[in-house]
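User: Show me a protein chain along with its predicted structure.
Assistant: Here is one chain, sequence first, then structure tokens.
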Amino acid sequence: MLTLASKVTIIITLLFVRVTKGVGDYLDNKIFNMENKMKKLIALFAVSTMASTAAVAGVALSGSASVTYDDNGTTKSSTSYDADLTIVGTTGATTVTASFDMDGTAMNTTAVDMSTDIGPVTIAADMHDESTAATTFHNGGQEYDSVDTSVSINVDVPVGDLTVGLDNSGDVTLGGTFSGVTIDHTVGDTTKTTASASIAGMDMSVTNKAGATTWDLATTVSGVDLTLTSGSKVTAAFGLAGNTMTVTSNPAVAYASAKVGRADGEGVNGYGKYYVKSQESYSTVAIARDLTSGATLTATYSSFDDSLTLKAAVTF
């Protein structure tokens, strides 16, 4: 016969086993529920990651940064900085491009453009109204600021390679390539025609704007890239990619008087032009070298002010 103490021990043992089993069942259910929650969170994270990746896949980033030191010849030396960022977003046949200047105290927008294709029709919009007024007063720049935003519609005409365009200012543009010659003709407030072609290894371009004709030629002779313009500017580039020297002869500039304009752009002189300061001819020599760090170092000498400029730049 069991004693009272034995009976109490058995009862306590049974209660302990039952409690232990209950705690175990509770913990198993808790862990199972936690596992389910973790699986759901992992699945949700995977879906979010896929969605984010899909969104980023349509966005491209590029930019550049540079530091420039200029001894300014006989005057006080100076250091300047520049940093730019470009974001391009694409979905289907629509592309949005936004550019920003980041070297100031705040990020400033420099350009926002959007284009989309609807069959043979291309619609392009310039949505950023950047300042067109000149910041210097002796280089013939525009006097008054004008609206810089625009919308244009271009249609590919099934006749050769002809494209017809119309913008919101009423300018009509005709462009195409015929027998190897590319022609762009704009009819509006100012008529402008440009013809360019590559013949026997020589790239030629001729532009007539409001009756004034300019041209430029580019070719390669014995590994030297030569460029000549109607303004008597000559450029010669030597060397291989990543290690080049460029010599430029800049012609003298004659004085030109200002053309007084109006803030609304109406009148013979439109928004006006500042005067052009006369300047003697001068030459520059620039030596550029790609560094193993990914940057490019350029040293430029100018006979204009007997100055030496050093510039370190990187693009991505």
